[in-house]
Design brief:
5-stranded antiparallel beta sheet; 12 helices; Rossmann fold; 5-stranded parallel beta sheet; alpha/beta; Argininosuccinate synthetase, chain A, domain 2; Single alpha-helices involved in coiled-coils or other helix-helix interfaces
Length: 405
């Protein structure tokens, strides 16, 4: 094995990555650089710095990436209306390429010859981190401790932590029943009772959203302003990308919006049950399709819908940095040049309804043509007869052939 001199570790400060930090120092006898990404997970990050210092880490990166996360990753994905397997809004998946990018940047800045992560050998995240790292730094060495060590249970991790004086906030028997991942787009839950797909999630599990039946009895209305497919203002107030998502998470969560309970197909082959809260993303998806409905050509919209499952799978499987995703993104972004206007939404007890949409400059909706009233010659209804007969021609020929037989 090539000698590792310095490694950049994706570090949260939790049990797993704290153990990994010490394990890397012991096993590889190398210098460790820690990198903690603030992408809106809502956790205090100072303890991560303190823990890293305790174990002699000299280079500690704690980066606020919230605006980059939403502006350069979440928003481009929502321009595509991406849903994996028809339900999952890709909240975890879309965070991984940003973390991989920053890991590689720090490796280049510090002269590190390896990067490390705490993803397990059963999950999708190992694939996402590593495909991203290889795409951006093809010769990088990647260390995945869960595929190397024998610390295969929580009890073994706790024993290792105790032996090496690693602080652990959650003592034995006090751990959360769920494996959770949070960022500005969503919070996910796996494990515990969710491993039985028949069991309903406990009401106490949900963190961001009220139960729909307990949401306010009065509907909330909200207006989103779009420019080139991105939300740039809420209720007429201009906002940065991250502030938009924070605002929509708050109002969506208050109205019980964005819960999902899904059994999905992992890239590594197994089925996995997860629960998700994505209030802001649920609102944005509904609104974006609404503004596209009046500003986008029919065939462009249909082509986008045909490509969307492939685009979503690329993100889910870790191919954000692939040439095919980049190519598709250019096409998607080109389709958004005229996606400008305002959408009005009604939020009520877990539901999002579009109640208005307008675009002063780019609307393709012509009320003179669409009207059921007198259209003053804007549309000649007699033209429809030839249109229908031509489109029916192949079916009429087939029917005559069947009749002859």
């Amino acid at each position: 094995m090539k000698k590792i001199k310095k490694v950049v570790l994706a570090y949260s400060g939790g049990l797993d990555t704290s153990v990994i930090l010490k394990w890397l120092q012991e096993t590889y006898r190398c210098e460790v650089v820690t990198f903690t990404a603030d992408i809106g997970q809502g956790e205090e990050l100072a303890p991560a710095r303190a823990k890293a210092r305790k174990f002699g880490v000299k280079q500690i990166y704690i980066d606020d990436l919230k605006e980059e996360f939403v502006g350069d990753f979440v928003f481009p994905m929502f321009r595509a209306n991406a849903l994996y397997e028809g339900e999952y809004l890709l909240g975890t998946s879309i965070a991984r390429p940003l973390i991989a990018k920053r890991l590689v940047e720090i490796a280049n800045e510090t002269g590190a010859d390896a990067v490390a992560h705490g993803a397990t050998g059963k999950g999708n995240d190992q694939v996402r981190f590593e495909l991203g790292a290889y795409a951006l730094k093809p010769d990088v060495k990647i260390i995945a401790p869960w595929r190397e060590w024998d610390l295969t249970s929580r009890d073994k991790l706790l024993a290792y932590a105790e032996k090496h004086g690693i602080p652990v906030e959650m003592k034995r028997g006090k751990k959360s029943p769920y494996s959770m991942d949070a960022n500005l787009l969503h919070i996910s839950y796996e494990g515990g009772i969710l491993e039985d797909p028949w069991r309903e999630p406990e009401p106490s599990m949900w963190r961001w959203t009220v139960a729909p039946e307990k949401a306010p009895n009065r509907a909330s209305y909200i207006e989103l302003t779009y420019r080139k497919g991105d939300v740039v203002a809420v209720n007429g107030r201009p906002m940065s990308a991250a502030t938009v998502l924070k605002t929509l998470n708050r109002v969506g969560g208050t109205n019980g919006i964005g819960r999902a309970d899904i059994v999905e197909n992992r890239y590594v082959g197994m089925k996995s049950r997860g629960a998700y809260e994505t209030p802001g993303g649920t609102i944005m998806l509904k609104a974006h399709r609404a503004i596209e409905s009046i500003t986008m050509d029919r065939e462009v919209a249909h082509l986008k819908d045909e490509l969307m499952p492939r685009y979503a799978s690329l993100i889910y499987n870790g191919y954000w940095w692939s040439p095919e995703r980049r190519m598709m993104q250019e096409m998607i972004d080109a389709s958004q040049k005229t996606v400008n206007g305002v959408v009005r939404l009604k939020l009520y007890k877990g539901s999002v309804s579009v109640v208005g949409r307008k675009s002063d400059s780019d609307s393709l909706f012509d009320p003179r043509i669409a009207t059921f009233e007198e259209d003053m010659g804007a549309y000649n209804q007699k033209d429809a007869e030839g249109f229908i007969k031509l489109n029916a021609l192949r079916m009429r020929i087939a029917a005559r052939r069947r009749r002859r037989r």
